[in-house]
C-alpha cells in the first residue's frame, strides 16, 4: 500500500496529468478545474473556431514550405523582421532544434524552471550547470552575481521570461545587461517567452526589440498557453543570426507545421478582441487573487508576471502535497512544486482561471492557510 506520509512514495503529478489524477483519485476529469496547466481559461477563441470550421479544406493541400503568410503575421504581431522568424511544431520542437544545433560545451540554465531544457541539453553531451534564483530576493535575478557565475567555458545561457514556476521577470534594463555580458563572452542566449503575453506590460519585458542588435539571441514563443491551443503544436522563434537560422532550418523536417496549424496561427495572432479579453481577465483576477492571499497568515506570495502565482506555505507541519491533495479532492488541481529542482521548501503554483473558479480555490486554500 502507498504510504502518503513518505515523500518518496507520494505520486508526482504535472500540470497536464489530468488522466492520471482522474485514475488515482477516482474523480471524473470533467469535474476537475485545471489550475496546474497554465492555459488561458477562455479556451479557444470562438472567432477562430468558426473560421477554422469554414476552412477545413486547407488540409487538402501542403502548407507553404516557407510559411511566408504565417511568418508575416508573426512579424507584425511581435514587431520583428519577417526574415528573423522561424516556425515550428510547437515551441518544444524549436527548443530541441536550437539546443541540438548550438551543441554547447557548457550550458547554464537559470532556475528553478521548466525541466525540458535540461532534458534536451543532456542529449547533446555537454556540461550543464544551474544558477538558481534566490527566494530571499523574491526570485529576482542579481545581474552582477549571475555574471560571476558565467564560467570561462560557458557558451550557452537559457532562461524563461516570465519564469516558470516563480512568475518573476527580467525587464529591459536587466535583459540588456545580460545580453551585453553574454555577447562579450561569446555566449548564445535562448529566452523562452511562453508567458510574456500575460505580463502587465509586455513592452517592459519582451526581448524582441533586442533581436536586431544581438546575434547571440533567440526568442522562443508559442500559442499553447495564451491562445489556449496546446494541441495545435505551433511555436515560433526569432533571431537575427542568419547563419544559425539557416543551419536550424536545414535540420528541421519539411512541413513540420501542418496546414491547419499555420492557418489557425494567422487567425489567433490577429484576433485583437480575444487578446484584449484575455489580458483584461488575467490582469484583474491575478491582482484580486494576490490581494486575497496576502491576507492569509501562512501564505507567502511574490510579484507575479505570468498567468500563475507561486505560493510558499509557511505553516509548520503543512507540506505542499497535503495542500495539493486537499484541493484536488474538491476538484481543484494545482501544482505541487516539490519536483522543481532548486526550489527548497513547500511551494504550490496555480494559474489564473475564471473568477468563479478562482474564488473556489481561494476559499479552499483559506481552510488551510488563513
Structure description:
This protein has about 375 residues and is α/β, with parallel strands linked by helices. Helices cover about 35% and strands about 15% of the residues. It has helices spanning about 20-25, 45-55, 70-80, 90-100, 115-120, 145-150, 170-185, 240-250, 260-270, 270-295, 320-330, 355-370, and strands spanning about 35, 85-90, 105-110, 125-130, 155-160, 190, 215-220, 235-240, 300, 310-315, 330-335, 335, 345-350. The strands form three sheets. Strands 2-8-7-6-5-3-4 form a seven-stranded mixed beta sheet, with helices on both faces. Helix 7 (about 170-185) links the parallel strand 5 and strand 6 (about 190).
Can you tag this structure with a few keywords?
alpha/beta, 7-stranded mixed sheet, 37% helix
Termini separation:
33 Å
Characterize the overall form: globular
Structural class: alpha/beta
Total helices: the number is 12
Q: Outline the biggest β-sheet.
A: 7 strands, mixed
Mean pLDDT across every amino acid position: 95
Helical coverage, percent range: 25-40%
Give me the oligomer status.
single chain
Report strand %.
15-25%
**What pattern of helices and strands is seen along the backbone?**
HEHHEHEHEHEHEEEHHHEEHEEEH
Low-confidence regions: none
Trace the largest sheet across and list its strands. 2-8-7-6-5-3-4
Count of individual beta strands: 13
Rg over C-alpha atoms, rounded to the nearest angstrom: 21 Å
Amino acid at each position: 500500500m502507498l504510504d502518503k506520509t513518505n515523500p518518496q512514495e507520494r505520486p508526482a503529478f504535472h500540470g497536464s496529468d489530468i488522466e492520471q489524477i482522474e485514475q488515482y483519485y477516482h474523480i471524473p476529469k470533467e469535474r476537475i478545474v485545471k489550475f496546474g496547466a497554465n492555459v488561458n481559461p477562455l479556451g479557444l477563441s470562438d472567432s477562430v473556431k468558426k473560421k477554422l470550421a469554414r476552412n477545413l479544406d486547407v488540409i487538402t493541400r501542403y502548407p507553404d514550405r516557407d510559411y511566408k503568410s504565417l511568418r508575416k503575421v508573426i512579424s507584425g504581431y511581435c514587431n520583428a523582421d519577417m526574415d528573423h522568424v522561424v516556425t515550428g511544431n510547437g515551441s518544444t520542437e524549436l527548443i530541441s532544434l536550437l539546443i541540438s544545433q548550438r551543441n554547447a560545451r557548457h550550458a547554464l540554465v537559470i532556475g528553478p524552471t521548466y525541466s525540458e531544457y535540461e532534458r534536451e541539453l543532456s542529449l547533446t553531451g555537454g556540461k550543464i550547470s544551474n544558477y538558481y534564483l534566490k527566494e530571499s530576493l523574491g526570485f529576482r535575478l542579481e545581474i552582477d552575481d549571475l555574471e560571476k557565475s558565467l564560467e570561462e567555458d560557458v557558451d550557452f545561457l537559457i532562461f524563461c521570461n516570465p519564469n516558470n514556476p516563480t512568475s518573476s521577470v527580467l525587464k529591459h534594463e536587466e535583459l540588456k545587461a545580460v545580453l551585453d555580458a553574454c555577447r562579450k563572452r561569446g555566449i548564445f542566449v535562448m529566452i523562452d517567452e511562453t508567458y510574456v503575453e500575460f505580463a502587465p506590460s509586455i513592452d517592459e519585458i519582451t526581448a524582441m526589440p533586442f533581436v536586431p542588435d544581438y546575434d547571440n539571441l533567440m526568442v522562443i514563443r508559442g500559442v499553447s498557453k495564451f491562445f489556449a491551443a496546446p494541441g495545435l503544436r505551433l511555436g515560433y522563434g526569432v533571431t537575427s543570426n542568419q547563419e544559425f537560422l539557416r543551419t536550424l532550418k536545414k535540420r528541421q523536417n519539411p512541413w513540420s507545421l501542418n496546414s491547419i496549424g499555420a492557418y489557425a496561427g494567422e487567425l489567433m495572432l490577429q484576433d485583437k478582441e480575444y487578446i484584449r479579453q484575455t489580458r483584461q481577465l488575467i490582469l484583474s483576477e491575478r491582482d484580486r487573487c494576490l490581494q486575497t492571499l496576502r491576507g492569509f497568515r501562512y501564505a507567502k506570495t511574490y510579484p507575479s508576471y505570468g498567468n500563475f502565482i507561486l505560493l510558499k506555505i509557511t505553516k509548520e507541519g503543512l507540506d505542499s502535497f497535503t495542500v495539493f491533495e486537499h484541493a484536488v479532492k474538491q476538484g481543484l488541481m494545482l501544482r505541487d512544486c516539490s519536483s522543481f529542482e532548486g526550489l527548497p521548501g513547500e511551494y504550490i503554483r496555480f494559474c489564473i482561471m475564471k473568477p468563479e473558479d478562482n474564488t473556489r480555490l481561494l476559499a479552499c486554500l483559506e481552510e488551510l492557510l488563513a
